Amino acid sequence: MSLSHEQQTELTRIAVTAGQILHQHGAESRLVEQTTQRIGVALGAQSIELSVSSDAIVITSLFKGNCVTTTRRCYDRGINMQMVCDVLRICIMLEKSLLEADQVKERLTRLKPYKYNRWLVVFMIGLSCSSFSHFFGGDLAVYITTFFASSGAMILRQELAHRHHNPFVNFALAAFVATTIASIGVIYEFGENPQIAMAASVLLLVPGFPLINAVSDMLKGHISTGIARWVFATLLSISVAIGIVASMSLTNVSGWL
Amino acid sequence: MELIALIIIDAMFAAVPAVGFAMVFNVPKKMLIYCAVGGAFAHSLRFLLMDFGLHIEWATLIASSSMGFLGLYWSRKRLIPRPVFTVASVIPMIPGSFAFTTMIGLVELNTAGYSVELMQIITENGLKTLFILGALSFGLALPSILIYRGRPIV
Lengths: 257, 154
Fold this sequence. Notes:
Order of helices and strands of chain B: HHHHHH
Radius of gyration of chain B: 17 Å
Radius of gyration of chain A: 23 Å
Largest sheet of chain B: none
Largest interface: A-B, 57 and 50 residues
Distance between the termini of chain A: 67 Å
Largest sheet of chain A: 3 strands, antiparallel
Shape of chain A: elongated
Shape of chain B: globular
Number of strands of chain A: 3
Structural class of chain A: mainly alpha
Helix content of chain B: over 70%
Number of domains of chain A: 2
Number of domains of chain B: 1
Strand order of the largest sheet of chain A: 1-2-3
Structural class of chain B: mainly alpha
Oligomer: heterodimer
Number of helices of chain B: 6
């Protein structure tokens, strides 16, 4: 098999697009690295070398002593597992030679992130946080308070994320809203132990995916990306804490500590 | 008998957040049922193990590594990358409350000044957060660390 310089450039571009999509939609570094390499090798490169950092990927394809290098900046587009599944499916189809290079390119550019109906997500997140309140030992009244508090916070979070506000500001404001609504329950004494609602209603703001990705990146040898994700998740939790403290000092209700 | 009823209730309440957060991560529709089953399985296993007197960190490690292997089976079967099911399934076990207590404690430590009780809350909750989180991610990564060792799973 032989590749012209143009073909090798094209191959590198296809592989870097796949890696960029994976990185932007929250795949862990090992998955980004492996999938990009597999696509490049399946398209005919001898090897693909890439460096994944927290906000960019650099990739070099090698073919008979000829190197093509390209860099892509990866802005965070929010976690979207459906995109990750689709890119991996394209990779598997390419490896089984069901697709040609130009088909792969066309499919990758055609991918569109699927989003669930936002009100359905608000409803489910409300139920989720209420289920957490059950784990903390809350009764039915606390369950209902938590549902409204966390749904209110989720609506605000989606609205601010839709307008591309800074995630730290977004999380602090959402935590403020959730705690304020839940503290109404404490003031009017809904249920046996209304403080539980304050603890449970902010759990929709736990950066679970970044934290798990951070530790698994570090375990699998991508220490620097792991540290970057860890710091991001820690800063998000600090901004949530500041939102909670601001609300508690305004309403003079203490549910934590 | 009472234990079985408690476990079933626990599993049902754990399936809801697993699906809810899977929808925030935009997991494809067909995979949501796997997230629900996984979340219910992992959390109720941890509940059972903690009922037997195991510490929360070790119970989490066992539950999340079983979830890792279950995810490995599903991922080979459906040709879907593993994090799609596994991360949403362990979301009910994430130590969110411990993490926020630590952070709020730190903010309070600044405003109210140093006190031994506050420092005790911060240290205990912070360490719990770190160890539970480490157990969770390590358990999920176990199949690829022990069996696959660098080779792709799907």
